[in-house]
Amino acid sequence: MSGESDLHEKAVRVPTKDAVLDGDLVVPPDARGMVLFVHGSGSSRKSPRNRYVARVLNEASIGTLLFDLLTPQEERRDAITAELRFDIALLTDRLMAATDWFLDQPEADDLRIGYFGASTGAAAALVAAASRDDISAIVSRGGRPDLAGPALLRVAAPTLFIVGGEDPVVLDLNKQAMALMRAETRLEIIPGATHLFEEPGALEEVARLARMWFEGHLGRVVESDYAA
Question: Which of 90, 112, 127, 151 could lock 218 by a disulfide, CB 3.0 to 4.6 Å apart?
Answer without folding.
Answer: 112
